[in-house]
Amino acid sequence: MRFYDPLRRPQDGCEPASGEERMTSAIESGLLPGTSETRPEGLAVGGVLLTELARRFGTPLFVYDEEHLRRRCRDAVAAFGRDNVAYASKAFLCTAMARLAHEEGLLLDVASGGELRVALHAGVPADRIVLHGNNKDAAELRTAMSARVRHVVVDSFDEMDRIERLHAEEHLPPARIQLRVAPGVAAGAHEAIRTGGNDSKFGFGLAGGTAAAAVRRAAGSPAMILEGVHAHVGSQVLDTAELAAGAAAVARFAADTRMDRLTVGGGLGVAYEAGQTPPSFAEWAARVRTAVRDAGWGSSVTVEPGRSIAARAGLTLYRVGTIKRIEGVRTYIGVDGGMSDNLRPALYGSRYEVFLPRSPRAPRPMRARLVGKHCESGDVIVDDAALPADVAVDDLLATPVTGAYGYAMASNYNKLPRPAVVFVRDGRARIVVRRETEEDLLRLDVDEPAGFPEPTRTVGTGAGAAQRAGTA
Ligand SMILES: *Cc1c(COP(=O)(O)O)cnc(C)c1O
Predict the structure, then answer these.
(1) With DSSP H G I counted as helix, E B as strand and the rest as coil, what are the percentages for the chain, rounded to 5?
(2) CB-ligand 1 contact for 304 (6 Å cutoff)
(3) End-to-end CA separation in angstroms for the chain
């Protein structure tokens, strides 16, 4: 399998932007959230200056344009129809985001017990939630079946065993299900996010009759109500023909097996660099509709966009701490975050742009490598950043299009507290996820003042051990 090779840039399915395109200012780039505007003091989003947000909430900071998020949700619903759009919450999830997607009429796609917990906590009704995952455990299935989620996307025969056991032994209601199918069509910007091929951990293969066997097994089971089939071929796909090809393959199978419902996943790509033009929801819908109709599917289609809802709505603010000019080599600009808040460059070789919020209309003739503060050379945010020439220590920088798979993949590497997340709208900012504190970093540590158990005692047993662990 071919994974990220740093020498094989670019990724994200696009050629790097040309020198001319990289001269574009932030405002011209088409990468900023929809309500962005230039003021004399700098760039404002949702009616709030980014410099003001950094002052109030600190950096690094994730800023989401709430109006942009809502507009993307509405556009998706307009393109595919109500009840036919599920927000893929793994792209970015918190209580406020779950509520927003629900308020805008989207279903919520969750892929773990944790995501399900957040969705239910946010007050999203279970019949608006669908559960995914290639290895759901009994606890996750138990919660989903007891709550009666809209449907479970079943991924394996072992999962069917677990559902049947829960139904038979714990008398849980039968699960409404769709079957995840691997259509033999993979798409996407990087091997790690190409999911629909035959050699995939996801789903029942159409090849070799596995999917057909899964349909027979589910249809004959009292524990499952089989309503449809599902496929998701990959992510950051900029050519809707690839998405349509995956949809057509699974549509043919859905028509042949007389299913009621068809879900064709997410995957629509977004622009990360100046000069890129991603397809709209309307284009995606038109392409998919034609493809599934030609494949014999006469009914509606459900999609699960994640990135294309959340990516451009969000940006990250960093503070510059160091500027290191290495004569004849390159310039390094070090900021106060890094791979712990944006793993995508390290994971997929993804490329980003960077702008100075104080001068969003400035041309960007300077070249530098924007790096984080983690203890490895791979901690790169923008490998070959284009910046205004006067960037200085203590400047605020913004990397746009970090709203999807940014905070969602954040970690505490090097014990960095994870950033705060704010939503801005109509001149007001509200914290939706607070910044972690150093106290938070110690929250899970079990402090044993007595030190390690003495060598003569068996580890983990006896009243002493239980007492130390706080369970006695
Ligand atoms: C990740 C995922 C999505 C969303 O993908 P995007 O590329 O973010 O739109 C949708 N459906 C499933 C099953 C997924 O795993």
Answers:
(1) 30, 20, 45
(2) yes
(3) 49
User: Which residues define the annotated binding site for pyridoxal 5'-phosphate?
Assistant: 267, 304-307, 405
Phi, psi (degrees; rounded to nearest 5) at 444:
-95, -10
Domain ranges of the chain: 19-63+312-440, 67-307
> Which mutation among 72, 90, 407 tests ligand 1's pocket best, with the greatest number of atoms within 8 A of CB?
90
pLDDT band at 21 (very low <50, low <70, confident <90, very high): low
Say yes or no: CB of residue 267 within 6 Å of ligand 1.
Answer: yes
- Please give the pLDDT value at position 455: 62
> pLDDT category, 17, cuts 50, 70, 90?
low
91 lines ligand 1 (CB under 6 A): yes
> What's the rounded mean pLDDT across residues 272-301?
96
Distance 233 CA to ligand 1 centre (A): 9
Query: Between 3.30.70.20, 1.10.3210.10, 3.10.129.10, 3.20.20.10, what CATH number should domain 67-307 receive?
Result: 3.20.20.10
Question: Which homologous superfamily does the CATH classification assign to the domain defined by 19-63+312-440?
Answer: Lyase, Ornithine Decarboxylase; Chain A, domain 1 (2.40.37.10)
Residue ranges for the binding site? 267, 304-307, 344, 348, 376, 405
pLDDT on residue 448: 76
Q: Establish whether residue 269 lines the binding site of ligand 1, counting it when its CB lies within 6 angstroms of any ligand atom.
A: no
Rg (CA), the chain: 24
**Interval 345-373 mean pLDDT:** 94
Nearest CA owner, ligand 1 atom 7 = 267
Give me the residue label for tokens 């910044």. 435
In order, the DSSP letters of 7-62 are GG---TTSPPPPTTGGG--TGGGT-S-TT-EEETTEEEETTEEHHHHHHHH-SSEE
Q: Is the Cβ–Cβ distance between 297 and 263 less than 8 Å?
A: no
User: Exactly one of 14, 73, 94, 375 is catalytic; which is it?
Assistant: 375
pLDDT at 418 (0 to 100): 98
Reported as a single tens digit per residue, the pLDDT across 39-64 is 999 999 999 999 999 999 999 999 99
Mean pLDDT confidence for 104-132:
98
Whether this prediction's pTM lies above 0.70 is answered by yes
Residue 14 is among the residues annotated as catalytic for this protein: no
